[in-house]
Amino acid sequence: MLGPGEDDTGRTTAEIIQDEVKDAPRCMQLAQQFGITALLDRRFKYLSTGETRKTLLCQALMSEPDLLILDEPFDGLDVASRQQLAERLASLHQSGITLVLVLNRFDEIPEFVQFAGVLADCTLAETGAKEELLQQALVAQLAHSEQLEGVQLPEPDEPSARHALPANEPRIVLNNGVVSYNDRPILNNLSWQVNPGEHWQIVGPNGAGKSTLLSLVTGDHPQGLQQRFDAFRTTSRQRRNHLGYQKAYRLRQQ
To answer: What residue stretches are annotated with the ABC transporter domain (predicted)?
Structure first.
């Protein structure tokens, strides 16, 4: 089943799930468990980050493994999707599957996890019961943070006069921005202005278009060439002279 404007190319979600194990009833069972039955006939390339993560997890579970290793399973997910995934993982744990989660953040460790290990300098430095170990790790982390209190961060470089914007000129002015894939709108006539000194937080569920909007601003999106950025009035390359941008790594497959 295709959505409005979606083309009939690429594999469906059901085909991705059954990439190695062809078992339609089990595919349906897993899709029901993870709440993605409505996506089975949809092209995988159109899924959001959260939908993609659930699809690939179903794919890994098709072979009914005794051990499931997940590398950064919560990366790129919004708050609601992280909670849903944590609940699904807890149910897998209760069903008897052994789970190993590779995580970067202490606050992402699910409640059902019993044991934990701390990897430092490519060495498994500590292992033990989760609660005990986290207390040790947190103390070490806090101690390290205290040592950094007196550290002076380097002053930023003075902006080049050649690239400087007038002090009172808006930093971003997007007028009626539009991004679509095969006539399927992702951003539709979006206008946005960021003034000097303002701080913005862009929020929304996975698939809402947050990364697409930022890729327009940075000039990384191919359709950005068609957009009107009044504040810069420049090419994408020239626009980057005014920007600093840190992007979280996100893996998309297939």
So the answer is: 22-74, 187-223
Question: Does residue 236 contact residue 225 with C-beta atoms inside 8 Å?
Answer: yes
Using CB atoms within 10 A of its CB, is residue 76 exposed (0-12), middle (13-18) or buried (19+)? buried
CA 178 – CA 186 distance, rounded (Å): 8
**CA distances, 145 to each of 106, 134, 137, 141, 151 (Å):** 15, 16, 12, 6, 10
Q: What are the contacts of 51-56 at 24+ separation with CB within 8 A? A: 51/13, 51/206, 51/207, 52/252, 52/253, 53/77, 53/81, 53/85, 54/85, 54/88, 55/13, 55/16, 55/17, 56/16, 56/253
Distance in angstroms (rounded) separating the CA atoms of residues 205 and 230: 28
pLDDT, tens digit only, all 254 positions of the chain = 455 445 567 899 999 999 999 999 999 999 998 889 999 998 898 887 788 888 999 999 999 999 999 999 888 777 877 888 899 899 999 999 999 999 988 888 899 999 988 887 788 888 889 888 888 866 567 556 656 666 676 776 666 655 667 778 888 888 888 877 666 677 888 888 889 889 998 888 777 778 778 877 777 665 555 555 554 445 555 566 666 666 554 433 33
